[in-house]
């Protein structure tokens, strides 16, 4: 895909969306997501996925805390988005109280986390790319996953097991996403920096796809 196809004056939020569209489709087309949405995976696979998310959101949210006052990344850091506590409740429900002793990051998750941490340390605008890729996705397609998880494993609606997908403090997700996109449109970055953010965003999608691939391999389709 041509990632340089910006018409002058295209709002950055639109540019980001259009230049990552193919990567979004790629992530969505991963067999793990397909099997999850078709109800073809056990609760263990879902829990395993939730564990990987816990590593990613710990990294995102520790980084967010450190960048709260950063002029570029700071405006994106919003408490109502925080997911770590919700993931911990879900994991306690899915795995039991001792879950922390049993979880490990997949190699793809470890690489993803390392990159988020590196961006947070060295390049706040790169952190914005990771922030956008996860949180705007959770506010959008995440709801499809929640719905399917509730149906497949009988979790209480918007309750334990799927709390990660429930943004209690965001009453109007569409309005929140609009405001978020406005923030993207005014991000303090020149064209070259915006292109670098686009590239990092594409990379963020690739990290997600890589995690899905490894999860898929962990749960072979039985013959
Ligand atoms: C079950 C799989 C998924 C489904 C069904 C899905 C669906 C959607 C839908 C319908 C939208 C458009 C929402 C809108 O216009 O407001 C969207 C947006 C988005 N999704 Fe996904 N998605 C999925 C997986 C993912 C994954 C794995 C990621 C990356 C980690 C992701 C990242 C995003 C982002 C960043 C947006 C916002 C695009 C923008 O408006 O700028 N999605 N998704």
List the helices and strands and how they pair.
Elements: H1 12-28, H2 31-37, H3 43-66, H4 84-95, H5 107-122, H6 124-138, H7 142-153, H8 173-185, H9 191-218
Helix pairs in contact: 1-9, 3-4, 3-5, 3-9, 5-6, 5-9, 6-9
The chain binds protoporphyrin IX containing FE.
InterPro entries: Haem_Oase (IPR002051), Haem_Oase-like (IPR016053), Haem_Oase-like_multi-hlx (IPR016084)
Pfam family, one: Heme_oxygenase
Binding site for heme b: 17, 24, 132, 181
How would you describe what is shown here?
It is built from nine helices and no strands. With 223 residues, the protein is an all-alpha fold. It has one domain (12-218): Heme oxygenase-like (Heme Oxygenase, Chain A, Up-down Bundle). Helix 1 (12-28) runs parallel beside helix 9 (191-218) and helix 6 packs across helix 9 (191-218). The longest helix has 28 residues, at 191-218. Keywords: Heme, Iron, Metal-binding. Heme b binds at residues 17, 24, 132, 181.
Notable characteristics:
single chain; 223 residues; mainly alpha; Heme Oxygenase, Chain A; heme
């Amino acid at each position: 895909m041509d990632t340089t196809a910006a018409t002058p004056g295209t709002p950055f939020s639109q540019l980001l969306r259009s230049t990552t569209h193919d990567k979004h489709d790629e992530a969505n087309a991963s067999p793990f997501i397909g099997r999850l949405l078709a109800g073809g995976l056990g609760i263990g696979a879902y829990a395993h996925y939730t564990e990987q998310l816990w590593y990613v959101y710990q990294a995102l949210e520790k980084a967010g805390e450190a960048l709260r006052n950063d002029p570029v990344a700071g405006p994106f850091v919003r408490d109502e988005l925080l997911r770590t506590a919700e993931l911990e409740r879900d994991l306690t429900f899915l795995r039991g109280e001792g879950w922390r002793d049993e979880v490990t990051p997949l190699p793809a998750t470890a690489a993803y986390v390392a990159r988020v941490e590196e961006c947070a340390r060295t390049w706040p605008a790169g952190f914005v790319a990771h922030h956008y890729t996860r949180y705007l996705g959770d506010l959008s397609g995440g709801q499809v996953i929640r719905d399917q998880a509730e149906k497949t494993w009988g979790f209480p609606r918007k309750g334990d097991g799927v709390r990660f997908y429930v943004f209690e403090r965001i009453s109007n997700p569409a309005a929140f996403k609009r405001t978020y996109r406005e923030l993207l449109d005014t991000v303090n970055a020149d064209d070259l920096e915006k292109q670098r953010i686009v590239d990092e965003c594409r990379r963020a999608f690739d990290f997600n796809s890589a995690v899905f691939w490894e999860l898929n391999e962990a749960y072979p389709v039985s013959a």
